[in-house]
Design brief:
The protein is mainly α. The chain is about 70% helix and about 0% strand.
C-alpha cells in the first residue's frame, strides 16, 4: 500500500516546502517587496542542503536544521 496519494510526489513535496520556507524568509526579512526570487532561491538552497544531510524528505528535520 502506497502511503501517499498518487498525485503527491517528492517533487511536489519539495515545491510545497520551498514555498513555505520562501514565505517564512519573506516575513523574517520584514515583508519587503521585490525580493521574491531571492527568497525563493535561498529557500531552495537551504532545503537542498538540508536534504543532502538528511538524505530524505523529512521537512520537520530540515526545519530544525534551517532554524539553527
Amino acid at each position: 500500500m502506497n502511503p501517499m496519494p498518487n498525485d503527491v510526489t517528492e517533487e511536489s513535496l519539495f515545491h510545497q516546502a520551498v514555498t513555505q520556507l520562501a514565505h517564512y524568509i519573506y516575513v523574517m526579512r520584514g515583508c519587503k517587496e521585490g525580493r521574491d526570487l531571492n527568497n525563493w532561491i535561498e529557500a531552495e538552497t537551504q532545503l537542498k542542503g538540508c536534504l543532502a544531510v538528511t538524505e530524505s524528505i523529512d521537512l520537520q528535520a530540515c526545519a530544525k536544521i534551517i532554524e539553527a
